[in-house]
Amino acid sequence: MLYLIGLGLGDVTDITVKGLETVRKCEKVFLEAYTSLLLNSELDTLEKYYKKEITIADREMVESQSELILDPAAAQDVAFLVVGDPLGATTHTDIILRAIEKGISYRVIHNASIMNAVASTGLQLYNFGDTVSICFWKENWKPTSFVDKIIKNLRNGLHVLCLLDIRVKEIDWSKMVRGKKVYEPPQFMSVNTAVEQILEIIKDREKEDREFLNEDSLCVGIARLGTDGQVIKSGTLKRIATEDFGKPLHSLCIVGKLHPLEGDMLRHFAVDKSDIPVE
Fold first, then answer.
1. For position 38, what pLDDT does the model report?
2. What angle do CA 266, 269, 270 make, to 5 degrees?
3. What's the chain's Rg over C-alpha atoms?
4. Is the Cβ–Cβ distance between 157 and 258 less than 8 Å?
5. Cβ atoms 11, 40 nearer than 8 A
6. Fewer CB within 10 Å, N- or C-terminus of the chain?
7. Burial level of 206, CB count in 10 A (0-12/13-18/19+)?
8. pLDDT digits (tens, 9 = 90+) for 85-127
9. Nearest CA to 154 among 212, 223, 241?
10. How far is CA 152 from CA 149, 221, 254, in A?
């Protein structure tokens, strides 16, 4: 049996009771470690709390060597641990499909993720449109299509959750030597970088686009959501661009049409309350 188990957002104790009981009965335990990170909990902390040896499953293992996870699950109970909720990334749907192809039974044990915990901002979940991913720009690669998706949501009055890039154990192709893989240092996109990229794109857009998204558009910057040290700040894109959000992980919301209660909550988190309109 393959168990996909959500760990939540905060630390080692955020796993559900059902999830913990399942981990402890499994013969093998893998921790997916590239779509997100469990803050405040190192590997040895997890192993001590779960009372299990844990194998780190990086992108290469999960996407190219999934048999290392799936083959044991044909005869044993195997836990695949995912920060947040197990089905918050398409990669994990893929591993379920591969298990089905191999005739391996599976079970999902859910937990909190950014997709529902974003309601901590005061923005109501049913007022969100499509989620957007923002990736790091490179010198010769600066994708802009995510802004089109943001604007499409805003035209419909919907808020937009922006998931910010995490680059862990990414191959540095420019430094490959004799077939030996060289990895880039870990990178975690900040709210500030995400806002800077949005403003850089929008300044060259047509007026009809800038009516919906501009430097005075409301947004909410989020850091370390679900932890004791979480930070939530609301304000215009221009104002949030210069705010300090501290250590990763960060997320960003672009605000659509506000319900009065949402406005009240955003004023609570506002850097400057004058940024938030009063209905």
1. 73
2. 80
3. 20
4. no
5. yes
6. C
7. exposed
8. 999 866 689 999 999 999 999 999 999 999 999 999 999 999 9
9. 212
10. 5, 20, 12
Picking from 253, 11, 16, 214, the residue whose alpha carbon sits closest to that of residue 118 is 253
Residues in the chain: 279
**Is residue 54 within 8 Å of 46, Cβ to Cβ?**
yes
Out of 12-21, 165-174, 213-222, least confident range? 165-174
Q: What is the pTM of this model?
A: 0.90
